[in-house]
Amino acid sequence: MNRTFHLVSLGCPKNLVDSEVVYGLLEKAGWNGVDEPEEAAVLLINTCGFIQPAVEESIEEILQLATYKSADPSKKLVVIGCLVQRYREKLEAELEEVDLFVGTEGVVQVAPLLNRLADGIETDSLVIGDPFLMTSALPRRRSTPFFRAWLKITEGCDNRCSYCMIPSIRGRLRSRSEEDLVEESRALVDGGVRELSLVAQDLTAYGTDLCGERRLESLVRKLLDRTSVDWIRLLYLYPSTVSTELIDIIAENDRIVPYLDIPLQHVSTKILKAMNRRYNREVAVDLVAEIRKRIPDAALRTTLLLGFPGETEDDVKEVESFLRDTELDHVGVFAYANEEGSAAERFSLQVEEDEIRERLARIITLQSEISQRRLRRFVSRVEPVLIEGVSRETDLLLEGRTRYQAPDIDGCVLINEGDTRSGEIVEVEITEAQIYDLVGRIV
Fold first, then answer.
1. Strand ranges (E), 307-381
2. Where along the chain do its domains lie?
3. Helix axes 178-190, 216-226, angle to 10 degrees
């Protein structure tokens, strides 16, 4: 068998980092990645199994890749990642087209396992592996543009939210050392990275497994002191553990973008308690007020989960009043669905799907008005913009992002006047605010 592979990566940025490590390890082992599945000897897919829609997408992609194997039975089909870790033997029994299943902890084993497949050596069809934590020493083939990268600082999660399966899929919290993260960051910056987005299941929990205390603030200070990266972005901050010290660090350092991603999930104290979230409405309100006080122009992003068991119309009205009062910049709104094996699956007072959809539509409509109003404050301002390249809408425009817009999840800046290269940070005068995007010209 020729040693070529085609890799499909699904799910979140944290999963994408795993895919980049797998790609790097395979290249180091002598394998060649190809863009077209028809050209590959091994079809490889890194799956997401976090929520039911992601599970369904993963299954669809597996079956799609299986059609290439049907056309050419010499190909091997390999499924790795969260879906395997979550469903294990069930997948093995139901997806006979797949030659090898590897769980989330088997990242470093993928290359030797594929070598065995290529050499025709019999091996177990399901490999889960021991708890894994990446290091800067591992090769990593980045799939993001050269000027930005994800920095995964922990693995696993110790929070036990009643709706979430992450701890059972990814395991307990495991933090990388500060030195190792500085080492990787320096290498990324040397490779041209200008924006570094720190990601984890819970960013503010970083370090608690290493020394019994949160060390995110210390890590951020070291990244500022020991790297020259232009922008540092902090994603997935747990609401009750966003410290005053962290807020002050952001306020005092221009290289940390004034953008805080704080997944609240809800604001009704009753629902938050049922979700097993460690805060209440008052904590959420006070946190937003504290951030607005210390970083007046900060962009705030959150996610909300509507339709949780026991949620009433009064709880939804609490969400509406909170959004009106706080005017958050970016809000991702999702419909609750029972996850097999979660505590909430067994809760009483389940909300009907039609009711969840109606609540979702109301909140999305309300937030779109708020987001557009928040964007209008940028009109006539000149902002540094990181240029992504030609617009996805038309090759007549350039596209970039301000410090207030995160890659892949928020809107962008459409540039209709001026010219520059991808990866440059340029001054742009904002001339128009749309619902989610800005329009401007290079000055």
1. 330-335
2. 4-127, 144-261, 265-277+295-378, 379-442
3. 40
